[in-house]
Amino acid sequence: MKVRFIVLALLALFATSAATASAQMQTGEIFGKVTDQSGGLLPGVTVTLTSPILLQPLTAVTSETGTYQFPRLGIGTYTVKFELTGFKTVVRDGIIVTVGFSAGVNAQMAISTVQETITVTGESPVVDTRNTGTKQTFTNELLQSIPSARDPWVILQQTAGIAMDRENIGGNMSGQQSNYVSRGGNPTNNKWSLDGVDITDLAATGASPYYYDFDAFEEMTINTGGVDVTQQTGGVGINLVTKSGTDHFKGSARYYDTNHRVESNNITDAQRNQGATSGNPIQDIQDYGFEVGGPLKKGKVWLWGAFGKQLVDVGVLGFYQPTATCLGIKADEAANVLSHSITDVNNCLNTDRTLLQNTNVKADVQLFKGNKLSFFNNFSRKERNARGADDLHPIETTTPQRAVSKDFGQWGWRIGPSPTYKADDQWVLSDRLLVDVAWAHVGNNFILDFHSPELKDVQPTFIINSPASLNGRSGSRSVNIRPVNSLTFNMHYFLPGQLGGDHAFKVGGYWRDNLSEGLGHTGGNASDRFPTDVELASANDCATLAVGCQVGLTRDSHSIYRLTNVAVYAQDAYTHGRLTAQLGIRYDRNHDQALAASISENPLFPQFLPAVSFAGADPGIIFNNFSPRVG
Q1: pLDDT tens per residue across span 302-330
Q2: What pLDDT digit, counting tens, does each position of 52-105 carry?
Q3: Angle value at C-alpha 413, between 412 and 418, nearest 5 degrees
Q4: If both were cysteines, with which of 3, 321, 346, 506 could 281 make a disulfide (CB 3.0 to 4.6 Å apart)?
Q5: DSSP state at residue 595
Q6: Which residues of 89-117 are buried (b: 16+ CB within 10 A; e: fewer)?
Q7: Sign, CA torsion 200/187/620/557
Q8: How confident is the model at residue 129 (pLDDT cuts 50, 70, 90)?
Q9: Is a pLDDT exceeding 80 seen at residue 23?
Q10: Smallest Cα–Cα separation from 245: which of 159, 347, 363?
Q11: Separation between Cα atoms, residue 377 and residue 362, nearest integer Å
Q12: Is the separation of the CB atoms in 530 and 539 below 8 Å?
């Protein structure tokens, strides 16, 4: 009994890392078995796969065990046709493939002396018999139908097993990504994937590097457990798949507007007396854009593009406009929270505005039979006028955010709206062997800046004894440049009739180079520190203040770090009857370095803060990780 308990415990432990086909992928698969009417296996059956999303039909021939497989299929609706001389042709229509879904499509063929076709429609598989993980798929129909705000974090909120750190009501939190956790796991293990590219920001580990055009998504899949060997960690895997062109022109456009006129609140005076508020009110949220795709040459070249823009304007409680009327309301509210209506208070709040803009372009090209070459490009732009706004930080102490625009590298590669470039070449070498090679570049970058350029030479004030140690104004600039280059190789091989069953092998490798560069500057290279805002008001400058004046000296900062990750992995999905077992192993080698950098001296007191040069350092520590995947 004790031995049995230990075996069951070990199986449960391995099941937590069980394999599923959707980690870091934007594809699914179709597989199945063909028999005659007596249940006998039928080798040599020609299986043809057609779909509006395929540049050309795919074909396979059933093995000696009557089985076949089509791996790495784009999401969409497929038709499967089974043909064999002397048998009636069978057609299975309307087979739906989603991200990571393995659709089992079997056929039973009857003997016939004349040419006949049997078409079965409306029987798409709904259960993935090969899936041993936990995931939830949101198709385009669901994404458009769920009554919620329009960003991936709201969809995460709809997913079982995930807890968010905030409520996004109608989009009032869409200007800043949410934090989330699943089943007590570490959020730094979470992974983001866009069209198969790992875009996770490793300088803010587990976060997305940018924001998205919601209508560009064809599908979104969220894995909360049992990711396969292609994902490095065991955290939540978010797979975002954008739309593509087809052999038919199609598109869509939208305009959404949410403003204060559609808001209401149910906060009573009794609740307000206890400190309850209505939350940050929506002032105006606009979301508009379009997407269109079609053939440049039917069956050979497809194009698709999209443009989307969001303007998110919300008021922040306690973040008052600096007018006499609004400052009077602020003072009245401090003395008596019922002195003014919630509407009057909300009308006096400053605007925290976020602009999110995305441009997407995708091209699919059939160079020759069995080959598909894909190109994808995305530019993601974010601007925010008052990051860090709250009741203790007036507008002058907040930080504007935008893309890095000059002096720090090539626009469209290192700086400018964060770019993503991807090139993917897929070869179908036979009905059993498929090879895929992908290269990608993600140019994540942003700057937290002064409210006006001249403040870079003005020393900020700092009130020591305030509730939040307030800065008198935005006093620093932070430049963040985080480019990532990656190369991925995957090979899929279907080996039927071995060891009593069929094997679907996946072998691959991964190289990713992550660079994180940060530059910082404090206005005037110093900060004037006062005990209270009363003494600040009575002083013309630091020299005239009798007691309690301090000066904090700073020099610029500059750091560059590099993390290189190399991985190899292998996995076998073994199928025998109703049994599916998956066994995989992944090896990761992680090597980080601090690269050379230099900064100038403090111009006010160089004797205290001289120039510094750093030659770089390699700690010589390499992390080698082996990760088994069993399910």
Answers
A1: 999 999 999 999 998 888 888 999 989 98
A2: 888 888 889 998 888 898 988 888 889 999 998 888 899 988 888 888 888 889
A3: 70
A4: 346
A5: P
A6: bbbbbebebbbbbbbbbbbbbeeeeeeee
A7: positive
A8: low
A9: no
A10: 363
A11: 6
A12: yes
Dmax over CA atoms of the chain, in Å, equals 109
Q: Are 80 and 95 in contact (CB under 8 A)?
A: yes
Q: Helix or strand or coil: residue 336? A: coil
Q: Strand, coil or helix: what is 349?
A: strand
What size, in residues, is the chain? 631
Strands 46-50 and 58-61: antiparallel
Phi-psi region of 455 (alpha: psi -120 to 50; beta: other; left: phi over 0): alpha
Q: pLDDT per residue over 378-404, tens digit each?
A: 999 999 998 888 877 777 778 899 999
**CATH number of the domain at 21-121, please?**
2.60.40.1120
User: Do 350 and 395 form a contact (C-beta atoms < 8 A)?
Assistant: yes
Give the C-alpha separation, 447 to 557, whole Å.
14
Distance CA 217, CA 308 (A): 12
Place of tokens 């990504």: 177
- 3-class DSSP state of 271: helix
279 CB neighbour count, 10 Å cutoff: 16
Q: Tell me: pLDDT of 570 over 90.
A: yes
What is the rounded CA–CA span in Å between residue 78 and residue 218? Answer: 16
For 6, residues 6+ apart whose C-beta sits below 8 A from its C-beta are: none
Partnered with residue 438 across adjacent β-strands are 424, 488
Q: What residue spans of 70-151 are helical by DSSP H?
A: 140-145
Give me the pLDDT at residue 86, please: 85
Which among 502, 430, 499 is positioned nearest to 67, based on CA atoms?
A: 502
Give the C-alpha separation, 269 to 562, whole Å: 55
Please, which residues bridge with residue 156 across strands? none
Q: What is the pTM of this model?
A: 0.82
Identical topology for domains 21-121 and 134-242: no
SS3 label, residue 517: strand
Pairwise pLDDT comparison (540 vs 483), residue with the higher score: 483
Closest CA to 493 of 475, 509, 507, 511: 507
Q: Which position has the token pair 């990713």?
A: 512
Please say whether the beta carbons of 469 and 447 come within 8 A: no
Give the domain ranges of the chain: 21-121, 134-242, 423-449+458-631
For 25-42, write each residue's pLDDT tens digit: 578 889 988 998 888 888
Q: What is the mean pLDDT of the chain?
A: 85
**Fold entry, domain 134-242:** Ferric Hydroxamate Uptake Protein; Chain A, domain 1 (2.170.130)
Within 10 Å of residue 12's Cβ, how many Cβ atoms? Answer: 9
Look up residue 328 and give its two tokens: 């009077």
Per-residue pLDDT at 19 exceeds 50: no
Is residue 195 within 8 Å of 244, Cβ to Cβ?
no
Bridge partner list, 515: 562
Element spanning 156, H or E = helix 152-157
Query: Helix, strand or coil for residue 543?
Result: helix
Judge contact between 174 and 166, C-beta under 8 A.
no
What amino acid is encoded at 274 in this protein? Q
Decide: 415 and 395 in contact? Cβ < 8 Å. Answer: no
Residue 374 confidence (pLDDT) above 60: yes
